[in-house]
Design goal:
- The protein is mainly alpha-helical.
- The protein has 5 helices and no strands.
- α3 crosses α5 (about 80-90).
- The chain starts with a helix and ends with a helix.
Length: about 90
């Protein structure tokens, strides 16, 4: 019984997570990018997708993670989709 409650509780927590708090290096981040884009206007959604792809590309380059720290003031492993979206809103 306790295991069932624990499993249900875990499912509820993960299903109710805010997409903007998902880390960029998460395996599910791409799915959440699409979810966030559905809530945005087309121009902002396009910019958000481009920036997300750019971050993924530069994270694979040796100096790329330093560029991410310089731009976002946060390490790549802690960077969330909300951080990218906030950076686009500032432009």
């Amino acid at each position: 019984m306790k295991k069932l409650v624990l499993i249900l509780f875990t499912i509820i927590i993960y299903s109710c997570s805010n997409p903007k708090t998902i880390k960029v290096n998460s395996e599910e981040a791409h799915r959440y990018v699409e979810e966030i884009c559905m809530e945005l206007d087309s121009v902002t959604a396009s910019k958000f997708k481009e920036e997300y792809k750019r971050v993924l590309k530069i994270s694979t380059v040796s100096r790329g993670k330093a560029v991410i720290i310089e731009k976002y003031s946060i390490q790549y492993r802690f960077l969330t989709l909300g951080d990218i979206l906030n950076n686009i809103d500032k432009k």
